[in-house]
Design a protein that fits this description.
The structure holds 2 protein chains of 2 kinds.
Chain A (H helix, E strand, L loop, with lengths): L2 E5 L3 H9 L4 E5 L14 H13 L3 E6 L11 H10 L4 E4 L2 H9 L6 E3 L8 H9 L4 E3 L6 H11 L2 E8 L11 H6 L15 E4 L3 E4 L4 E3 L4 H6 L4 E4 L6 H19 L5 H15 L3 E2 L25 E9 L4 E6 L3 E2 L3 E5 L6 E4 L3 E2 L5 E2 L1 E2 L5 E5 L9 E4 L6
Helix pairs in contact in A: 1-2, 1-9, 9-10
Chain B lengths: L3 E5 L4 H6 L5 E6 L19 E4 L5 H12 L5 E4 L4 H4 L6 E4 L8 H7 L5 E2 L7 H10 L4 E7 L2 E5 L3 H8 L7 E6 L2 E8 L2 E6 L2 E3 L9 E7 L5 H10 L7 E2 L18
Parallel strand pairs in B: 1-2, 1-13, 2-3, 3-4, 4-5, 5-6, 7-13, 12-14
Antiparallel strand pairs in B: 7-12, 8-11, 9-10, 10-11
The chains are: A alpha/beta, B alpha/beta.
């Protein structure tokens, strides 16, 4: 079993993740999850989504991964029972109290140990295995050798992050947010202090922000050493980010399995991912300790990415008109790219834009406005249109 | 009978003073197996309690197994759960220090099935600490005084910073964000950010069901450490209660506009 696991901070993201090639998604409910300020999903939505996923032969994992204080247990039993009733495929847990509670309630809920627990060796993994944990989300600090050793000694299912933002700290071992802002990092309120500037030696900025994780160059090796699930970080991300990243890794994995991946394609995928996240990325701990090259040192501005131009809502094969919901400004004369789960990426130069009344307009400048383009190549609902920034390989 | 104090050895000068004090247990950071301490000790120099506060790999575990086998220590304080298996035949006292990851009485009681005691996290309010002590299956260790580890990174954050700017290498630094101070300690195994001020639990003597009062007196001179431990005298030391009187929030809707 080799699984591509996507983040789903909302119902919409979940559907896009499945559509663009995820084998499984992970999400948080309204409570008990470490992304307390993501949209998250209601129990009804989780049940609906799980049913949908199972029809596709895919899986849903629910993060119940806060570190509990005594006051947080209210409602936990009912919540766990509801998740079991919804037949979610697993819950992701960091606190021993949840692991034990699932057993005490005799619930049919598979448990995955969250990366928050920072498992980094076989004996720690075996401790959790004895408590019934079926999968370990390894600490992001685990190197290739660590992963091989743990797999060999325990045989347990291993899940590794392959893409997305990194904590500076071992996950779970940080309360900078609690100290600086009073927001509890281990209950979902992390204020990301590791992305702030510290003052050191008077007025010098100390920046400790890591670049993102990106395992494009090592994914084939990771597949060989027996990792079972390849996890993308980003429950707070947009549908464009989720769709782009999932599609890249889907194609990458499939091409590796088919022995058709070229070096040019790998570079192309790397460029797409870096552009999409608008951050630099690196393999981080996989092949050794990160140096200063895997960190930022100058304050960087988080400029929001405006490459996502529109979402395809419909395509009329007879007229070749594609109906688009605008997401970012575009105009006549722009060269864009269309891509989708079943649509090979292609370039397209915008010669004309039509509004809802089929009147010609020069620009599409209002988010979520409906407009039409005439495109000769077939498109599918929920394909995406982005700014062209790289030549297609 | 007065409770014993568990004191991390952060200054070699306190050893001779406190070694034969019946009320004090000295906790020695073990060479190569601790982060956040400049001063560490080889196993053959440790005759009281050993501190192992790193997260460990399989390779580390194998090395630690050999090292601990050479030791004659009375107890051990550790963070990585993998040590539970490694220490299963150890007859001395086993104390778990799960910084930030056991913040409820339920979690602590589950862990107490495997160890003799747990050090209560400093992420809690005083009310939460009291509730945990009142309902704990065994006596617990309470943080009384010291710098609080806020963040443990495997990265060499100071080295990377100094390499990037071609600065002279220093493994201890002070830093600030707004009005918050930090002390940063790096060694080959990672970097720890501590609070800049010393945590102090004002009413610790009133607490019940306590096994040891814990002191982590980093960066203090011998006389000051002895004064704090022997006389509870904090004169001239900037202390604060951290979260004892401040409940943390985690959903932004909990922040009410003024």
């Amino acid at each position: 079993m080799m699984e591509l696991l996507a983040p789903a901070g909302s119902l919409e993201n979940a559907y896009f993740a499945f559509l663009y090639g995820a084998d499984a998604i992970y999400l948080g409910g309204q409570d008990f999850s470490l992304r307390a300020n993501a949209k998250n999903l209601s129990l009804d939505e989780i049940a609906e989504l799980t049913q949908y996923a199972h029809q596709l032969g895919k899986k849903v994992y629910v993060a119940v991964n806060i570190v509990f204080h005594d006051e947080d247990f209210a409602g936990l039993d009912d919540y766990l029972i509801s998740l079991a009733d919804a037949q979610v495929d697993a819950i992701i847990v960091s606190d021993i109290s949840v692991v034990k509670r699932v057993a005490e309630l005799k619930l049919k809920l598979e448990i995955h140990l969250s990366t928050q627990a920072s498992a980094l060796n076989s004996k720690t993994v075996q401790f959790w295995q004895k408590l019934g944990v079926k999968r370990i989300v390894l600490a992001r600090e685990a190197s290739r050798e660590n992963i091989i050793s743990i797999k060999k000694n325990t045989g347990i299912d291993l899940e590794c992050f392959i893409h997305g933002a990194m904590c500076t700290s071992f996950s779970g071992k940080c309360v900078l947010s609690n100290y600086v802002t009073g927001r509890d990092a281990n209950r979902g309120g992390c204020a990301q202090i590791c992305r702030w500037n510290f003052k050191i030696d008077g007025d010098t900025d100390l920046v400790i922000t890591p670049k993102d994780l990106n395992m494009v160059s090592y994914i084939e090796d990771m597949m060989k050493i027996g990792i079972n699930s390849f996890k993308i970080e980003g429950r707070m991300r947009s549908i464009y980010y989720v769709a782009t990243v999932i599609l890249v890794y889907r194609r990458l994995i499939d091409k590796i399995l088919n022995h058709t991946l070229t070096a040019k394609e790998t570079t192309y995928y790397l460029n797409i991912l870096n552009r999409c996240a608008n951050r630099d990325s690196a393999p981080q701990f996989y092949n050794g300790l990160p140096s200063d090259k895997e960190q930022y040192f100058n304050g960087r501005e988080e400029v929001s990415n405006q490459d996502f131009l529109g979402l395809v809502l419909d395509y009329d094969a007879k007229t070749s008109f594609v109906k688009i919901e605008e997401r970012n400004f575009f105009k006549v004369g722009d060269t864009v790219q269309f891509f989708g789960p079943e649509t090979p990426t292609f370039d397209y130069k915008i010669m004309a834009i039509f509004d809802e009344n089929m009147q010609k307009i020069d620009t599409a400048r209002h988010p979520q406005m409906i407009c039409y383009l005439k495109v000769d190549r077939p498109l599918a609902k929920y394909d995406m249109m982005r700014l062209k920034t790289f030549d297609i390989v | 009978m007065e409770r014993k104090k568990l004191v991390t050895v952060t200054n070699t000068d306190i050893i001779a003073e406190l070694k034969n004090n019946q009320d004090v247990i000295l906790l020695y950071p073990l060479d190569s197996f601790c982060v956040g301490y400049e001063l560490t000790f080889p196993i053959n120099k440790i005759d009281d309690y050993v501190l192992v506060n790193r997260l460990l790999t399989d390779e580390d575990m194998a090395a630690l197994t050999k090292i601990l086998a050479q030791g004659h220590f009375k107890g051990i304080v550790f963070e990585d759960l993998g040590l539970l298996e490694l220490l299963k035949d150890f007859k001395g006292e086993k104390i778990l220090m799960l910084n930030h990851l056991a913040n409820s009485i339920r979690s602590i009681n589950y862990y107490l099935a495997y160890v003799d005691s747990v050090i209560i996290s400093t992420d809690l309010t005083q009310e939460e600490v009291i509730n945990i002590l009142d309902h704990s299956a065994k006596k617990l260790v309470v943080n009384v005084f010291g710098l609080i580890p806020l963040m443990y990174s495997r990265r060499l954050l100071l080295t990377n910073f100094q390499n990037h700017y071609a600065l002279p290498l220093a493994n201890i630094k002070e830093a600030q964000i707004n009005d918050k101070d930090f002390k940063i300690v790096e060694n080959a195994y990672g970097t720890v950010f501590y609070t800049g001020k010393y945590f102090y639990f004002p009413d610790y003597q009133k607490l019940n069901n306590v096994l040891y009062d814990y002191y982590n007196p980093l960066f203090l001179p011998k006389e000051t450490i002895l004064r704090v431990i022997r006389e509870d005298n904090l004169q001239g030391i900037a202390t604060f209660p951290f979260l004892l009187n401040q409940k943390t929030i985690y959903k932004l809707k909990e922040v009410k506009p003024k």
